[in-house]
Each structure stands twice: as structure tokens, then as C-alpha cells.
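stage 2 :: seqdesign
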């Protein structure tokens, strides 16, 4: 049931609005002045607030300003002495809408429904933002993770290129996302390219785009990832798997800040911060002739190594709780607690798949277990102990 707070110094108006709204299946509270209204707004959560403008003591516009520090509910201002200037001022101060007295019942109900829709959208947007932020949150308090965080904090505000190294599943993309979110480019695009997932014959088109007719399937012009990331960040994941020909073009883009589409002749200027990641030892790849040494030096202005999970085992309880909350939230249930013995058992696992494997195991436990996670649950549903 949606709830409404009515703020009006006239008892008759409060009573009339209460009768109407309760008939329409709203829950209703009312306040005779601004102080009482602020107290109610601090104690309760409302979906919509109706507020009179002309009241003794604190007027409605002051109530509007102060109530917004306690509540996200849309505020509809009402007045029998209103003018266009008053309405404009109310909207500027954050009111959702303005209705003149005597109140038109149909308009009031329509405005309430629209305000409810807006409030629901705001809440949903907030949940989605929280979910996205949580998805890229770096969890862990081990010295190794504090070192990574410190490096991100120092490097992110610059445009320095960063090479992130570490085994599969350690969270290299997480580091790249945090570098972008803490940079001056945070409001611009973050474009991710998995170099290992794109066939070598298509990687150049993916990165640099192509002109119509430049090859058989090029039925229209396409902007590449460098162009799409203009002003923002381009994350080249698993760059150790990129072909040598594509490496040469990436090197040119980094040297000159220019690219040329496949099949094109025109140079296109791009402003892109490049962050790269790999699970390979690029020094060994250089010795084998699989990776260009000059590109390595262009990419590795800053090196950040993400340690495997076995080197930060003390972070496992924090990570497990974090993943359990995420998994259970997605299933609409309370997060399951872990016993101390369960955590000790988890710390003894190899975790060859690192964070990714841990996340999968915790999700499996969330689905298959009904109560607290025990040592036996970990032994049953995770990989064998050492």
C-alpha cells in the first residue's frame, strides 16, 4: 500500500484528503505544521508528500527544502493563494508538482499516481546503481590488496597507460574498472575488448573499424573501439593473444593518437587512455617472437600485479560474505552465514580459478544449502582439499 504524508494547517482539509486517499487505498499520515511534518519524515518512509505552502511558523517552501534532507519522496505543493512565481519557485526548490486550491480531485489523483511512478523509478535507479557499484567493488583487506588499491588511487587521476598482470580469475577487469571510475574520464565511455575472444582476422576491424566494402561482410561503415572510447578508456583484456599485425597498429595508435579504419585512407585522431591486461608473461612472449617489445614498453608505463587468491587467503571470509549477499539478493532471500570451520576449510583450497572460482562455489552453496554454511558443505560442494 503506498503511503502519503499530508502537511496542512487546516484540519478540515487534512480530514477531507485523508478520507479521499484512504478510499483510494493509500496509507495516510498527516501533520498540522512543518515541525511535526519533519519529525514524521525522519521516523517514517513515505511514497508521496502533499505540502501546503501558506502555513504559520515554517512555510511550505522551507518545509520542502528541509524535508528533502530526510526523504526522497516526491513532494507535491498545494496552495489557495498561489501565483505563477510561487509555483516556479517551488519547482526550482525540488517540488514534483504544484496544485492550486480548491483541489480538483481527478488532477490530484493523477498527480499522485505520476509522483508514485517517479518515486518508483528513482528507487529502482538507486538499486541498479548500487548493484553496479557493488559489482565492481574491490573486496579485501590483505596487504596485497591494499597495495593494489594504493596504486589505483595514485595512478587513476593520470592518463598513464597501465598494464595489469595476474592469473585468470583474479579480478584484472575489476582493477581496470576502478582505474576508469576514479579517473578524470569516469563520465566518458569504458570500452572493453577481449583480445583472446576475437579471431585474428577480425581484431583489426574490431579495434579500428572499417569502411563499407573493405571486405566481404563489410556492408556498412563501422566505428572501431578506439573511436567509440574517444575521451574515455579502452581496456584491452588478454592483450598477449593479439596478433602481431594488430599489435603494430595499436603501437601506432599509442604513438600518434591516430588510427585508420580497415579499407580507409583517412587518419582519425583519437583521445583514449589504454589499459591492458594479460595472464601471460609478456617477457617470455617477447623472447618467443609472439609480442612486440616496443608495444610492451608503451603499455607498461605503470605495472599492477593482481595476486592469486591463494596469496591472499585472509580475504576469503570477506569475499565469501560479499558473494553470498549478492547471490541471495538475486534470489530474494536472506544471506546464509558461514561457520568459522567453513571459512578455515575454504582457506585450505587450491582455488586454481581464483576469485571467479570462489564466486561460483559461493553461489552453489547459496542455492544448495538452506541454513548456515558448514565445513561439510564446503567439502561437499567445493573442490577437494589439499
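stage 2 :: out
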Amino acid at each position: 500500500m503506498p503511503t502519503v504524508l499530508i502537511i496542512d494547517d487546516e484540519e478540515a482539509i487534512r480530514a477531507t484528503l485523508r478520507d479521499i486517499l484512504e478510499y483510494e487505498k493509500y496509507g495516510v499520515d498527516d501533520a498540522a505544521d512543518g515541525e511535526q511534518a519533519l519529525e514524521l519524515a525522519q521516523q517514517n518512509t513515505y511514497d508521496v508528500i502533499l505540502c501546503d505552502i501558506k502555513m504559520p511558523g515554517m512555510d511550505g517552501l522551507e518545509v520542502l527544502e528541509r524535508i528533502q534532507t530526510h526523504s526522497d519522496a516526491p513532494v507535491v505543493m498545494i496552495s489557495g493563494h498561489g501565483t505563477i512565481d510561487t509555483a516556479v519557485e517551488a519547482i526550482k526548490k525540488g517540488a514534483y508538482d504544484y496544485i492550486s486550491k480548491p483541489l480538483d480531485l481527478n488532477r490530484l489523483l493523477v498527480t499522485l499516481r505520476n509522483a508514485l511512478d517517479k518515486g518508483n523509478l528513482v528507487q529502482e535507479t538507486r538499486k541498479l546503481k548500487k548493484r553496479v557499484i557493488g559489482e565492481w567493488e574491490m573486496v579485501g583487506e590483505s596487504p596485497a590488496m591494499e597495495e593494489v588499491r594504493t596504486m589505483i588511487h595514485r595512478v587513476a587521476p593520470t592518463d598513464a597507460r597501465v598494464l595489469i598482470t595476474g592469473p585468470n580469475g583474479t579480478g584484472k577487469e575489476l582493477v581496470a574498472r576502478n582505474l576508469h571510475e576514479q579517473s578524470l574520464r569516469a563520465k566518458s565511455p569504458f570500452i572493453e575488448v577481449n583480445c583472446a575472444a576475437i579471431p585474428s582476422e577480425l581484431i583489426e576491424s574490431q579495434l579500428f573499424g572499417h569502411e563499407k566494402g573493405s571486405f566481404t561482410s563489410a556492408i556498412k561503415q563501422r566505428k572501431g573501439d578506439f573511436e567509440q572510447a574517444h575521451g574515455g578508456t579502452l581496456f584491452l583484456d588478454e592483450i598477449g593473444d593479439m596478433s602481431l599485425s594488430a599489435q603494430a597498429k595499436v603501437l601506432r595508435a599509442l604513438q600518434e593518437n591516430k588510427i585508420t579504419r580497415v579499407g580507409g585512407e583517412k587518419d582519425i585522431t583519437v583521445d583514449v587512455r589504454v589499459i591492458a591486461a594479460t595472464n601471460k608473461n609478456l617477457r617470455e612472449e617477447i623472447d618467443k617472437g609472439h609480442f612486440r617489445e616496443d608495444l610492451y614498453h608503451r603499455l607498461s608505463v605503470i605495472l599492477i600485479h593482481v595476486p592469486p587468491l591463494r596469496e591472499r587467503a585472509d580475504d576469503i571470509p570477506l569475499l565469501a560474505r560479499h558473494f553470498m549477499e549478492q547471490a541471495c539478493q538475486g534470489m530474494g532471500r536472506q544471506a546464509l552465514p558461514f561457520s568459522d570451520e567453513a571459512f578455515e576449510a575454504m582457506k585450505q583450497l587450491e582455488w586454481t580459478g581464483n576469485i571467479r572460482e570462489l564466486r561460483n562455489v559461493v553461489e552453489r552453496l547459496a542455492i544448495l544449502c538452506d541454513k548456515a554454511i558448514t565445513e561439510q558443505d564446503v567439502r561437499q560442494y567445493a573442490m577437494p582439499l589439499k
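stage 3 :: structure notes
- The longest helix spans residues 105-135.
- Residues 6 and 50 are 5 Å apart (CA to CA).
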